[in-house]
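Think of the structure tokens as a kind of shorthand, similar to the way a musician reads notation: each symbol stands for something richer, in this case the local conformation of the backbone. In the example below we present two proteins back to back. Begin with the first one, reading the sequence and then the tokens, and try to describe in your own words what changes along the chain.
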Amino acid sequence: MKKIILLIAILVVSLTSFGCNNMVAVLVSPTNYEKKIPAEYDLRKEAKRQKILVVVDRAPASGPNKKVMPLLAAMVENFLIKKAKIGKKYILPYEEADPLSNIEGDVLLADPVKIGSDAGADLVLYVLIESYNIRMIDKRRGYFTATMVTRSMLFDVASREILWTADGDGKRVAVKVELETQGRARAIERLNMTTSHCITRCLYNCSKRLFKTADELRSHDELINWQ
């Protein structure tokens, strides 16, 4: 009983000294668990009922074979649906649209707006693989390490305007899987998952606690040292 009386007394003193309004503000303020990092471009809000096509391209001598590109596109699509809450019916499937099939020869540095127009898209999320590498570091155990650098931007097909990023340079993402013990496919999956997260987190209000991820290279120095 004495403990309850003491706690009530402390609460009364706190309310008196700190102010009721301030105390209420503290009690209802969002926790770190609830805080959001504002979207750089809120895709769900700005692109209502617009069809979106994800196009993954590769720079010359960047490293990946053609099989890597649809895998990354599918992962980005999945993140747009599940994390950015874009309706599945507004995402044009990479396989069905087949945006790169009309390009002769090697698929390098295609025109994303033309591809989007041909596929019937309103918006194109263009992801350029600038660098890609995967290698086995322990043949006996089947351990791998892998790296990928991408640059992404969002185009409005009708106007050819770059909607995101605001500076028009694109969002650069560098990912490194230091060690993967479950084989090559898992190393590629980790590259794609981290890259997709780092791209799409800018297109919705992402939870602060989920914003950063372990395989992401965050600083310019890290990127230089890795390269």
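Once you have a description of the first chain, move to the second and do the same.
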Amino acid sequence: MLKKPFFGISSSAFLIFFNALFLWIFFSLFRQALDTADMFENYAWGITWTLGNNKHPPLFSWVTAFWFQIFPTKDWAYYLLNEFNLLIALAFIMLSMRKVLDEDKVFIALGLTIVVLPLGIDNGYRYNANLAQLPFLTGYLWALLTAFTEKRISIFCLAGVFAGAAVLSKYSAIVLISAITFATFLYFKPKLTYVLPRLLLTGLIALTVLSPHIYWGVQHGWPSLHYMHQMYRPVEQGEWFSIIVNRLRILFTYVASSLAMLGIALLYPPNFIKTTPLVYRRKIPLGLLIFISSVICIFIASYIEKITPYSGWFIVCSIFFGWALVDMLPDVTNWKMLRPRIKLLIIFYITLVTLVTIYKKLNTENTYVPLAALPEIVSKDVTNLYHNAYNKHIDYVAGSFPLPYAISFYSSDHPYGIYGLDIEQSNWINKSQFKLKSKVIICNKEKHYSPTDPECTQQAIALFGSPDIHKNLKYQVYDPVLKASRYVEVNVLMYP
């Protein structure tokens, strides 16, 4: 029997590539703006190449800065970064599944994974800390499975590199690393005398990868850890049950499309499955074990820290859901019949999403700039104003968050962005240079910015003195909430 080509049109590898290509084209064509502070601040932090910032570990911001050394600072290039990021993560999932599943099951599991909403059309454009850690977490899983099955110390070392990189992207990756390690250990049941020294070596290498950031954190008083604790609401007594139910409901909304796809695929014929899941299993399958362990570990970590579990943490769990679904189906499932059905449903899903999006675009009468696209226009206008006034580049930009970060990204000068007007929290910049170099302060009245005008302009003058030039820019934009056009004003304070 001829073996199917690794990258044939019906292969798992091609499915991963096609999914990345589709999402990149989809977002590039139909999204009107980056529409998120996360992506702007990644770049603003990254171009300083510091070992930390006021919110997160630095690795994903370095990746962003490196990416835009190659590509232009355009929205389409940012979407491409995240699709490349997800492609790597799914490739590691595929390689991991191939160690315990046959090819039909791997393809079906990947098909059920790519329709998970946070990894697809809902959130799949947003390269941030949640999604940036996925290639390293799935790489850690693949390395751990390879190390357990092939018993190679070098692969345990590689697992340590992946683990360190995952935590260097987001601290909460420690929880998922623990879940993956526990599930893998429970599945393979290796001898403790063999595995413990090797896992200690893995941990030591991960710690080595993290050590420069740890040193930076000690030197700066761990601002990112303080932010993490301030970000999440403490849990009151008696709230845990309602919180768990709420978070499981959110997780269900993430994976509902996968469940629906599998349900439709299994509708006909009635005798497609002749037994109930897990009845004759001697142990819980690996994918299901990883998914369950990940969810449980998130709740345990939240309970220990006495904080409300962040919904974004469950986005990371969802990458294992397709594998878990396949594991829940009984062994008598006709996988050969199920695989082409999943393929047809993916094609139908992509077609439906595209047609619905085109229909909405055609039926939206909007002759004005979308509100979400305003930061890019402001960035270009402010840059031109400054060049015309002083004939030199802007070095720093501050003001109503996240406008400074947006200008850092979109402006041809790529100035260093400040966290609002808070120089002390902007620990990635040189404070003495900030006072001496050219700068622009951008202030806005929109309620989702901080600080808003007139407080922003007043604070700026109090901090930096009266500006050399003060401009008021006015834009007519389309507000999707009001479903009407309105004017937005931006105050620009320029210092030579």
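Compare your description with these statements about the second chain. The CA atoms of residues 257 and 263 lie 10 Å apart.
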